[in-house]
């Protein structure tokens, strides 16, 4: 069992596949200092020292406190799909600096190096428990999963293809929201993806969305909250505004647990909180329950 | 024009609404300032000038009545129209009551309820957008700000009646988009529409919120920029003829979309947003 990040040919020898959460600065995420490729890792929650082999075998969940470490899209796909069934689509779509926004090219380059992905979502088709489904998985190490025009286009195409192929869609979200560097074009992705979700839904197809830490902003306010069944990872931060923005607005400290998965379950916005180790089994069962008779 | 609202907001006549003829504003940040100006006309001013017989409807039937969103039915010439607007208010008392035009989830749900009624009775929908953004607060999050906006985006996409949205002041991110998934989106000359406030953008980019002027250039938030990017469909010039212009253009556009079948209408709307980016 290897849940290692794929090697990026652009990465130098000296550059390790360090998964520190630097990109979460200014976003809604909690700061995590884990170093997944090092041989020992300290859990951000309980601070216990864990070996990376141990984490590999627990799907990057701390065996002591059940803290879910952030994992990249490829690890997620490996965990959730039946082996060798994932076929990627639109892997060749690359974002451009449409608005000539200062520093965007550099940001994109850094994000590509860090995540080995061309944009913040990986899409395709797969089988989960032997059932065909379209899949999109957002990538936390690419600009904190921010939604740009390529992200929106890939997700929209995933729903459009699933509609034609009569398939359910399974999605994993992690995002700081719309991508500022693409301005209003990125905001429009909220409407575009929502339209595609609606069409897929109106045709009677299932959409299951798994919200992982953190899911905020324009992604929460579009496809993440539009699923038929919404599942959250334990303790994931889920909200529209980030906690820092809210604290600045109301000039008060937020209560502990605010906007966490457990809070969203209590307030009726998610169907269930499911431990990452159970995701595949849980989703496969739901897909099975929604299986449509073959025409 | 004897409505309840008029007695609250009061006295706005067409002549008062018309801005004095001055040199056009060109720099993005000047537009930001103009769009936010305290003495700028609000949604209710426009509603009461463009339409007649506005009857306001309250509440989302779930939680409460959000005063940042006004909604109801009014006549555009002889056609009943569902009119929805985000209202900032004028005086400090009004502005506080309206939460400075930042809606809670119940505001978006109230809007959606009125849109669904419009669909049932075959009335076109016209939305007026003027908000710095959906409200960021504890109650808003507890009651699902994200879910409320998401639902509007999804439902508006397939609403079977014509929808036109007019950005009249600030179009602040998702909170504005939740009333702007429309067949046509128009902007007034000095309004702005942005994914993030220039201050927010500046503090992320340069860690200095005072550089909003520079950020407002980068964000391409003016009506001209957004028309070029095909995010919006039309710019309405401000000034003496603005109300007449809005009246005649709205009437013509509503009529143009009314002849389409529901399928053609929603297909066209889908493609309009499908082609963004």
Characterization of this structure:
The complex is a heterodimer of chains A (295) and B (277). Chain A has helices at residues 52-57, 73-80, 104-115, 149-164, 183-202, 217-220, 243-250, 261-266, 279-289, and strands at 40-42, 49-51, 87-89, 121-128, 131-138, 169-175, 207-215, 229-232, 272-273. Chain A is of the alpha/beta class. Chain A is globular, with a radius of gyration of 18 Å. With 277 residues, chain B is an alpha/beta fold. In chain B, strands 1, 2, 3, 4, 5, 6, 7 and 8 form an eight-stranded mixed β-sheet that branches. In chain B, a hairpin with a 2-residue loop joins strand 2 (69-76) and strand 3 (79-86). Mean pLDDT of chain B is 90; it is low at 1-16. The interface between A and B is large, with 56 and 46 residues.
Helix content of chain A: 25-40%
Strand content of chain B: 15-25%
Oligomer: heterodimer
Radius of gyration of chain A: 18 Å
| CATH architectural grouping of chain A | Alpha-Beta Complex
**How many strands, what sense, and barrel or not for the largest sheet of chain A?**
7 strands, mixed
Q: Strand arrangement, largest sheet of chain A?
A: 3-4-5-6-7-8-9
The N- to C-terminal Cα distance of chain B equals 43 Å
Number of strands of chain B: 8
Low-confidence stretches of chain A: 6-37
Order of helices and strands of chain B: HHHHEEEHHEHHEHEEHHHEHH
What's the domain count of chain B? 1
Task: Examine the coordinates and then state which fold CATH places here, giving the name of the CATH topology of chain A.
Answer: 2-enoyl-CoA Hydratase, Chain A, domain 1
Q: For the record, give the distance between the C-alpha atoms at the N and C termini of chain A, rounded to a whole number.
A: 38 Å
Count of helices of chain B?
14
Low-confidence stretches of chain B: 1-16
